[in-house]
Design a protein that fits this description.
Length: 464
């Protein structure tokens, strides 16, 4: 029997058992062919999209597909930026966790048990009612899922103080090879029983199995938050100011950067009037007890003013929210600058920033590319965007060369080719630059253990 006929037969079995939770109609398949990746990638229609509603259903679906050698792609909200959730072979079945979106709060243990499809923002909103805080805040937090955040180890502005998703995951449940189920971790902070498989699964991008639920750790919600803006005339001073804030032992809850290209774009996109005659700006958020926040704010203000930097303070919550929404809208705002956009999310040690940022600008000039840089500068994580004309062959050639050189530069500065968006397919060709032969060999070894038939999200992170 041909592979295609075998898949049809298996899908018939699944449709008998799961009825309209299994969709093979063209509209559904087209909708699940792409994610939010802006880099050109070649995708294929999935054979089907399945919407389980319980862990038992996920188990049964995986069991059937795994035994019949049919590849599958776990999917949350499809907001990934490196092609992690897209089919690239044409024989894959997408398993969407979006209907598994329930969660419950355990106040006594300050934890949440969340199904993988629960939306991060919904959880954050709910726990805040009890004075609790789930800090990981990717800019996509209003629509991305906890499962997707875990699979990508998502970060965001507040990770500079609170750490990324991995710091808040106490345990995971899910399904791996042949439909076997696992349960790692518990509602406890301490747990050293054997290897830390929870951590293996965090950032595994759907290549080891399907996460069905997670135990999230909560902390107290800070009582006060204040936002300052700082405007710089010289690009080099921005990195220096960031380092200075930390060496003065002030750890902001967010420290975000926008260069002048980003400021201009977001002014137009969001109808704002941020100053445009600057090299760049910092958005600095401080949180904690009200008195401590006030003291830190004064100290940061003084530090920056002694560097000759113009500082403004947001006076109302509405003003703060407006600035945050501008920051979150940067991705779409700068997309308007070119028909093509490549958004890389590199990360370098903070101490390297004063030299690194001007070096990136020089690199963009060398390849004649428009470049917009923004990001979570407090933890050294920058989004370097190259903007170009998709119809021009010369531009495409230049952007490919610039990306490779950017990654080499980043590694030379002691950083990583991805701080939060993961490897997926777009960064797969560059992973060896960072991890070397042995790193790739170990990834393949772990993959073999969880997924010996290479059926979970094949072709992502590494080729097996
Ligand atoms: C406007 C915008 C802003 C963004 N900002 C940020 C940011 O600030 N920080 C950041 O880190 N990311 C950001 N992202 C990227 C993206 O939102 C994150 O990677 C997010 O974690 C993806 O979640 P998702 O539910 O959409 O996952 P998907 O895109 O559906 O999937 C992502 C990957 O996870 C796997 N996966 C999904 N669910 C599961 C599961 N249950 N079990 C196993 N594997 C699974 C998929 O196979 C895929 O490889 C942004 C994206 C957009 C569009």
């Amino acid at each position: 029997m041909s592979n295609s006929n075998k898949t049809e037969k298996v899908l018939d079995i699944l449709r008998k058992e799961f009825k309209d939770k299994v969709r093979i109609d063209i509209i559904e398949r087209v909708l699940y062919e792409r994610d939010a990746t802006t880099i050109e990638i070649e995708t294929k229609l999935p054979k089907a999209v399945i919407f389980p509603t319980t862990k038992e259903e996920v188990k049964r679906i995986v069991e059937i597909l795994y035994n019949e050698d049919i590849p599958m792609i776990p999917r949350g909200s499809g907001s990934g930026l490196t092609g992690g959730a897209v089919p690239i072979r044409g024989d894959e079945v997408v398993i969407s966790l979006e209907k598994m979106n329930k969660f419950s709060i355990d106040l006594e243990n300050a934890t949440v048990i969340a199904e993988a499809g629960a939306i991060t923002y919904e959880i954050q909103k709910e726990v805040e009612k009890y004075g609790l805080f789930y800090p990981p805040d990717p800019s996509s937090y209003k629509f991305s899922s906890i499962g997707g955040n875990i699979a990508e180890n998502a970060g965001g502005p507040r990770c500079v103080k609170y750490g990324t998703t991995r710091e808040y995951i106490l345990g995971l449940e899910g399904v791996i090879k042949y439909g076997k189920t696992f349960k790692f971790g518990a509602r406890v902070i301490k747990d050293v029983a054997g290897y830390d498989f929870t951590r293996f699964l965090i950032g595994s991008e759907g290549t080891l199995g399907i996460i069905t639920s997670a135990i999230l750790r909560l902390i107290p919600l800070p009582k006060e938050r204040r936002v300052l803006l700082a405007f710089f005339e010289r690009l080099e001073d921005i990195g220096k100011a960031v380092v200075k804030i930390f060496t003065n032992r002030i750890f902001p809850s967010a420290l975000e950067f926008m260069d002048y290209v980003c400021i201009q774009s977001v002014n137009r996109y969001k109808n704002l009037s941020l100053p445009e005659d600057v090299a760049g700006m910092l958005l600095i958020e401080l949180d904690g007890n009200p008195q401590a926040v006030l003291e830190d704010m004064r100290e940061v203000e003084n530090l920056l003013r002694t560097m000759g930097v113009k500082v403004e303070i947001a006076h109302t919550k509405e003003e703060e929210e407006k600035l945050w929404s501008a920051r979150r809208a940067l991705g779409p705002a700068i997309s308007k600058l070119g028909t093509g956009k490549v958004n890389e999310d590199i990360v370098v040690p903070r101490s390297a920033l004063p030299e690194y940022i001007p070096a990136v600008r020089k690199l963009a000039e060398k390849y004649n590319l428009k470049c917009a840089i923004f990001g979570h500068i407090g933890d050294g994580n920058l989004h370097v965007n190259f903007l170009f004309d998709k119809e021009k062959k010369e531009d495409i050639k230049n952007v490919n060369l610039a990306v490779e050189e950017l990654f080499k530069l980043t590694i030379d500065f002691g950083g990583s080719i991805t701080g939060e968006h993961g490897v997926g397919i777009t960064k797969k060709p560059f992973l060896k630059l960072q991890l070397g032969e042995i790193g790739i060999e170990l990834i393949k070894g772990v993959k073999q253990l969880f997924d010996p038939k290479n059926l979970f999200n094949p072709g992502k992170i590494v080729d097996v």
